[in-house]
């Protein structure tokens, strides 16, 4: 019999070998779940496009309108090289992407980067972490996003399934807004004269206005479906200034996801979608081929006092005919119309928003911060500012319309906020004294105060890493109550509750949903009402928050949060890439 004596070095070697195997297995497991790197090239170039019987040159990506679809899987890394061949400064924002520790790739001009100037390029480098669903990309400077936009489709990881029946086919439906005139000229003239910018001439579905507009029947989006099949429509509102109602005649839709977060499925005939929001819906085609075509219609939900583009874009849902049906029949099928709510139906809007709930399952939990470290109360709305020097404005007493958060109309700096923050050069660029509450209390949704003059400045809120924030956003009736879709960069937030009138800090929090609230990146602050959200400040950087109605952003309805680095290596913002554009 042989006795086996193990020395300490033998034990150490065996232990090291065992650990190495564990590391190797975990590395392989990680590699299996880690994504791949996908490369895209975006050439920003002018393209001649004809709509509504008029041809104009527009800014595009790769000559395409709408722009190319980006498709990737959760966990993938994206390297998107943007080359600017046009006369305008350009930046691209990857709307709704969390950009965890990759703030340099977020894209808003003068917030996370200086713009890409003519003849220059920049590589946006980021990883899709913990997100799957529909988002979109768009220009984030001036009004260039009028034509610079396209969908982002993030598929689940390989071998992961949807938490709803797998569709037969997936179709992006991207809503846009079209002007006959040049949009840069429109906003520049409005800012120079202190007037409201001209409204759009049409809405579009995947770049096409449809048969309700002058000579546009040939420019109609058509969706061909097979009887009995289920289709996933990936809805994106890329319009500049209008929330939209959407309906498919004689069909019910099932909402399954919003802003790239799965929701508890619910059925609806009509979807309301604000600029900046995305919504995935299942459309089940009828079991037998009907002898009709069906309108897919979208038109504005408009609450403010200003004029708006009160037109309807129409796409057509057509059933594929069986081989036995003759073609001549198919051409003459009646088109059934889709009835939409009144343009100002705010009670429908409120009811619809309340239907969104997180799945809140073990696999897809709703990680609502239960304790709150910092509370903020922000008024959002309109007001006036004095006209700039040597300028005559159209408002009373030489004033111009403006917009603000907590009475501060945001002034865009001329170097990027994130660089100023990272290199400790904030002096003269921004201050961190953004007000936690409005400077004075008034009946926010009642009779407006006599003095509606705003202040202006580049003020930010500074937050320590990983603290929980509760924010109540309150609409005001100054220059008219209006719904404002507020978008927060760098985070998703939970929508705890909303209501009509003034927020009551004593009674309303008792009604907050802390169990399965919707998790979003853009939420409509109700017209003449309030919405309460929570988020965890777990992403170091400078994060823009603004109204996604572009006219209000131009007028100053925006601010930013600075989230400072944490202590750990993975809680710090890495240095900027070498090709970050210079101002």
**Mean pLDDT level:** 93
Q: What general outline do the C-alpha atoms trace?
A: globular
**CATH third-level topology of the largest domain:** Immunoglobulin-like
Distance between the termini: 81 Å
Cα-atom radius of gyration = 25 Å
- The second-level CATH architecture of the largest domain is Sandwich
Unreliable stretches (pLDDT < 50, length at least 5) are: 1-32
Query: Into which percent range does the helicity of residues fall?
Result: 10-25%
Strand order of the largest sheet: 10-9-12-17-14-15
Q: What does the largest sheet look like?
A: 6 strands, mixed
Tally of distinct domains: 3
Briefly, what CATH class of the largest domain? Answer: Mainly Beta
Structural class per helix/strand content? mainly beta
Count every beta strand, where a strand is a DSSP E run of 2 or more residues: 33
Number of helices: 6
What fraction of the residues are assigned to beta strands by DSSP?
Answer: 35-45%
CATH superfamily of the largest domain: Cupredoxins -  blue copper proteins
GO molecular function: copper ion binding; hydroquinone:oxygen oxidoreductase activity
Enzyme class: oxidoreductase
Function: Lignin degradation and detoxification of lignin-derived products.
Pfam family, one: Cu-oxidase_2
